[in-house]
TrEMBL record:
<dbReference type="InterPro" id="IPR027417">
    <property type="entry name" value="P-loop_NTPase"/>
</dbReference>
<dbReference type="GO" id="GO:0005524">
    <property type="term" value="F:ATP binding"/>
</dbReference>
<dbReference type="InterPro" id="IPR003593">
    <property type="entry name" value="AAA+_ATPase"/>
</dbReference>
<dbReference type="InterPro" id="IPR003439">
    <property type="entry name" value="ABC_transporter-like_ATP-bd"/>
</dbReference>
<keyword id="KW-0067">ATP-binding</keyword>
<protein>
    <submittedName>
        <fullName>Putative ABC transport system ATP-binding protein</fullName>
    </submittedName>
</protein>
<dbReference type="InterPro" id="IPR017871">
    <property type="entry name" value="ABC_transporter-like_CS"/>
</dbReference>
<dbReference type="Pfam" id="PF00005">
    <property type="entry name" value="ABC_tran"/>
</dbReference>
<dbReference type="InterPro" id="IPR015854">
    <property type="entry name" value="ABC_transpr_LolD-like"/>
</dbReference>
<dbReference type="GO" id="GO:0022857">
    <property type="term" value="F:transmembrane transporter activity"/>
</dbReference>
<dbReference type="InterPro" id="IPR017911">
    <property type="entry name" value="MacB-like_ATP-bd"/>
</dbReference>
<dbReference type="GO" id="GO:0016887">
    <property type="term" value="F:ATP hydrolysis activity"/>
</dbReference>
<keyword id="KW-0547">Nucleotide-binding</keyword>
<keyword id="KW-0813">Transport</keyword>
<feature type="domain" description="ABC transporter">
    <location>
        <begin position="8"/>
        <end position="227"/>
    </location>
</feature>
<dbReference type="GO" id="GO:0005886">
    <property type="term" value="C:plasma membrane"/>
</dbReference>
């Protein structure tokens, strides 16, 4: 039933912060549609509001106004408990900081969200491990991994429960260019394989061009990327 609905639909979403200097309008009322299986790159200068937009979609911050529908469900109308449930079951999050649980081995970090969501699929997890080259690292703890390895685990964890929408905030931002390219190719392959939609913040035009569409935030508004 939810298949025909956009994976993500934003309607007239705005966001401001109160700062010591007064009200800072970060996002003007903006709208956006991301269809199932599609990928969208979000670019813009530092401070233009990219992370803010991602946090609103993840329900980690509140919009001033507007609707944010994830597969038809308006996250702005949910209480904290149901927001957390939606996040757990339908969203995958990958941020620049890997946010792995230090006390858990790779295998348990990978299965963490899928277990919480009650949808651990061993076959899919095996596929993820194989594609991301994580088979040899299962028994290690995050501190025993390189940055690129940690990022691959974070990626696997975000996809293990088969989210409908993957939100990635500069997922390869802290990696060198070669590693970043490798991780990015793996990310795109897995996203395609799982059929989920992808909203990715990036500073890299090269990466943005690999996605189905690319937009930039400028003065709080979304503009198609023309460069
Ligand atoms: N909690 C907050 N309180 C006040 N201002 C905030 C808060 N969070 C973000 N801002 C401001 O909102 C603006 C947008 O921040 P945001 O982190 O979304 O930008 P960004 O485009 O992701 O930047 P970058 O590319 O540097 O990560 C910035 O001016 C920032 O200082």
């Amino acid at each position: 039933m939810q298949q025909n609905k956009p994976a993500l639909f934003l309607q007239k979403v705005s966001k401001s912060y109160l700062t010591p200097q007064g009200k800072l309008q970060v996002l003007q009322p903006l709208s956006l549609t991301l269809n199932p299986g599609q990928s969208l790159a979000l670019m813009g200068e530092s401070g233009s509001g990219k992370s803010t937009l991602l946090h609103l979609v993840a329900g980690l911050e509140l919009a001033d106004e507007g609707q944010i529908l994830i597969a038809g469900e308006d996250i702005t109308r949910l209480d904290e408990k149901h927001k957390a449930q939606l996040r757990r079951e339908r969203l995958g999050l990958v941020f620049q900081q890997f946010n792995l649980v230090p006390s858990l081995k790779v295998k348990d970090n990978l299965a963490f969200q899928a277990r919480l969501a009650g949808c651990l699929d061993k076959k899919w997890l095996d596929e993820i491990n194989q594609r991301l080259g994580l088979e040899e690292l299962q028994e290690r703890y995050p501190e025993q991994l390189s940055g690129g390895q940690q990022q691959r685990v974070a990626l696997g964890r975000a996809l293990a429960h088969r989210p409908q929408l993957l939100l990635a905030d500069e997922p390869t931002g802290s990696l060198d260019e070669a590693t970043s390219d490798q991780v990015m190719q793996l990310l795109l392959q897995l996203v395609q394989l799982s059929g989920c939609s992808l909203l990715m913040v990036t500073h890299s035009l090269r990466l943005a061009k690999q996605l189905d569409s690319a937009w930039q935030l400028h003065s709080g508004q979304l503009e198609p990327l023309t460069a």
